[in-house]
Amino acid sequence: MNHYNTTTSQNQPDSKPSSYTMKAVALIAHDNKKQDLLEWAEYNKLTLSTFKLFATGTTGKLISEATDLDIHRYKSGPFGGDMQIGSDIAEGQIDAVIFFWDPLAAQPHDVDVKALLRICILYNVPLACNRATANMVISSPLFKSSNAKEGASSNASASKEAHHESQDDPQDLEETS
Fold first, then answer.
1. Which residue numbers are catalytic?
2. Which of 26, 57, 59, 146 sits most deeply, having the most CB atoms within 10 A of its CB?
């Protein structure tokens, strides 16, 4: 699914198979939720270290400084960071989004936030908006497996494979409106 392959020696007892592909996780938080995401990331530092991490600007900086995790930082959300993550989702580069957004505060980039939520749903990318759901996503054996998205949509994938279409490309879907 994504292009972040790591290879390890199969002679090591606890190593992953050489075909193991690191899952890519995007971390985003609105200003009023940054502390919540920071505390969650500190608590889950060990698990997060097994993923390729991405984040919007300020959020990524705060988490990286507090945890020493390697995080690729995009622009700040209001300056296009949410859209950059959405683009990477559409390209199959992001496997899950942890987005602690503030439902009680209007954002100057509400349209971008809605677009990001929509693209997660459109491409069947797990989206966690609070600690409980974020914990479930990063600890799920389904998420950690290489075919989690395919398993979740097995009926759709079987139909698309019969027609030699990409199961993740929404352009292949017929419009219903």
1. 82
2. 26
Residue indicated by tokens 């990477």: 88
pLDDT digits (tens, 9 = 90+) for 55-89: 999 999 999 999 999 999 999 988 999 999 999 99
| Residues 35-61: tens digit of each pLDDT | 999 999 999 999 999 999 999 999 999
Q: Is the pLDDT of residue 118 over 70?
A: yes
Contacts of 145 (CB under 8 A, 6+ apart): 151
Cα 6 to Cα 146: distance, rounded to the nearest angstrom = 13
7 alpha carbon, distance to own chain's centre: 21
